[in-house]
User: Fold DNA-binding transcriptional LysR family regulator from Rheinheimera soli.
Amino acid sequence: MDNFEGLIEFVAVAEGQGFSSAAKRLGCSVSHVSRQVSRLEQRLGSALLARTTRQISLTKAGLTYYQQCKDLINGLEQANEQVSSQQFQVSGTLRVSGAGPFAEQFVAPVLMSFAEQHPNLTIEMDFNTRMVNFVDDGFDFAIRYGELNDSNLVARKLANRPMMAVASPDYLKQHGTPKHPAHLKNHHCIISNNDHWLFNNAGTAESIKVSGRWRSNNAHAVVMAAERGLGIAYMPKSSFKAAVEQGRLVPVLESYWGKGANSWIVYQNKRFLPLRARLAIDYLVQHFADWAE
Assistant:
């Protein structure tokens, strides 16, 4: 069994591209990781890692060895999880990254219900809008909206998010109600993610360049600005649900609203996921299967 010492540390270094990230992932010291990997290289009689002052990379032998070792370790971890799942014991800490009102208002309560069903589980939910590094930051999965460009991540569709354009009654009384997306060029628009709004014009996508006096990447701030009459806002329907129901905002251009984008569950592209993450992802997907804005 001594021949297997250092395998877990080596795989963690290879996946995290560094000793610090591997130590953080494994919950041990950097010196321990370095020592275990060095001993593994000595036993094998071959250098697995090319070390420089700036980065760590796999040698040719290290790449081949990693590809075989990761499957071995994933299989062992999977076996451990299957034993745990048979006993229905979900434990440990589930770390989730989510940004925006959809994650706050709709995803978080579902995860709270999931936590209630598993009393030995701790859930940490971070609402920072930055892009996360799953290895360095230790997240199990993230909730993201829109187009996904990272091919190294696995994405599961959570919900479709059709769009809605709104304005306050006072704004419309003062500036008039637009009848066509092209009319937005004569209006103040509240800009969130970008200043090109995509509408559906008789089945054809039409992009309209807009401008205005308020811009924010925070959906709550956009809603507040619209309620205070600073202009017309255009975001997923759920962002305006309460304000529209209470009459603080009025829908406009309804026949031109775009289909919007999707919210996704994204996680690191690897064969093994902890049981708690797999069950939580399945729970979310099932909950939102028939969800509508």
Remarks:
- Residues 71 and 271 are 8 Å apart (CA to CA).
